[in-house]
Amino acid sequence: MEAARPATADDVARLAELARQGADELTPMRGGAIWSVREARPEPLEAAYLALLDRDDTHVVVGTIDEVAIGLGVGRLEQLRDGRCLGIVDELFVEPEARSIGVGEAIVDELLVFFGRHACIGVDALALPGNRATKNFFEQHGFVARAIVMHHRLDS
Description:
The protein has about 160 residues and is of the alpha+beta class. It has 5 helices and 5 strands, in the order βαααβββαβα.
């Protein structure tokens, strides 16, 4: 059965493994080269996830099937200049073989509960322009485009 739960220190090695799989998948996509050196979580991932578990403004989630970790999600709180709070989905990845069966939905639902507890006015999530499946996933869960980032390459 698919589910999601808060991550623990025991999950750190698996979280790092899943994040590396996600980066390997996204980096070659359109927009992925810049994403990999700007938004992707940098190594050492094990230390990074361990540190995130201790933060009050971040929620790290493990997606499971029959208690086996096959997905991850990371959400954080961002304080806006007007004092309100915005939820940010920094990471969402489910192993390809386990997609379209509810694990991603369970992870997002767990993150939305976290954002709701902190009175966020909304939630932002990034989808690369080359990743139509991610855009469609978020749209099916009530997300709409709020901004589009345009990029002009200067190197050839």
